[in-house]
Amino acid sequence: MSQSYNRYEKARIIGARALQVAYGAPVLVDTEQTQPILIAAEEYDAGVLPFTVRRGEQ
């Protein structure tokens, strides 16, 4: 991943992806996991999630 995420952004990304997987979205990695949150965490670690985080201007 080209962007570095803090722990809150990481939790939001994995949570959003887990919800997508729970509703039937295709899984982007080969995994033995069956729980959506664990699948999403593996996808995050593999760097295959197409999420970006837009931060506010400070």
Helix content: 40-55%
Q: What is the ordering of alpha helices and beta strands?
A: HH
Count the DSSP helices. Answer: 2
How far apart, in Å, are the first and last alpha carbons?
23 Å
Biggest sheet, open or closed, and with what strands and sense?
none
Task: Tell me the β content.
Answer: under 5%
Based on secondary structure, the structural category is: mainly alpha
Estimate the mean pLDDT confidence: 92
Weakly predicted, low-confidence segments: none
Radius of gyration: 12 Å
What does this structure look like?
The chain has 58 residues and is mainly α. It contains two helices and no strands. It is elongated, with a radius of gyration of 12 Å. The protein starts with 6 loop residues before the first helix and ends in a 12-residue tail after the last helix. The model has no long low-confidence stretch (mean pLDDT 92).
List the helices and strands and how they pair.
Elements: H1 7-22, H2 36-46
Helix pairs in contact: 1-2
